[in-house]
């Protein structure tokens, strides 16, 4: 295992206070608290920590959830240290009322939850433009966390098909400027998890994937109309030209500039003879 390294950032995702990826060998955290939920996975090694003066361990096949305002420390449980990824969630995201349950059971042995947390990190590390995708992933993670902690299950206010159609209409109306899952949930009076599940069941793909597809279609139309790739990104709803290019490669296997150039050559026809 290599020496210490640490990377932290704050993505523009509602409910996420900070993301931290770290590798520690000898460093030990002194007792401290956070005003956020600490959602932690270990990728290598193991961690020993005390939470509210009780000893616990964090290992690679578990998810660890530490509640806000409860003292804890942390240190390597193996000579080689540990690698961890952490998402700090605003206190109300999981729910302050579940603090006691998390103190009693901070280690969650749930393979599906572990995979979902890893996928959330992958999206959060993907750069700007993936906020709705991250929100959707986070909603599923939080729903499962609350299930482990005995939190109440929110009820759907509308039939799933109706909820899905209403969300699709909202996404269609906000293709360029985008829409957060939190804002959509408020507009429709529904829990974010219900929105993601209802939409996916009705249309075969999650809301963020639908919105990206609409943006790609809009970008294609603009490029075929002769607009330069540099101007298309913002007009089609992408964060910047790099985000447009990255997404275009994933969907069409080529760059926007090449897509537009090929189309222009076909429109122009063959060069004159002679």
TrEMBL record:
Is this entry keyworded Chloroplast?
A: no
SMART domains on file: HTH_ARAC
Domain HTH araC/xylS-type residues, every copy: 165-262
Query: Gene3D superfamilies in the record, alphabetically?
Result: Homeodomain-like
Keyword set includes Lyase: no
Q: Superkingdom of the source?
A: Bacteria
Known SUPFAM superfamilies for this protein? Homeodomain-like, Regulatory protein AraC
The record's annotation in InterPro entries points to: AraC-bd, AraC_XylS_family_regulators, Homeodomain-like_sf, HTH-like, HTH_AraC
Alphabetical UniProt keywords = DNA-binding, Transcription, Transcription regulation
Q: Name one GO molecular function term.
A: DNA-binding transcription factor activity
Please state what the protein is called: AraC-type DNA-binding protein
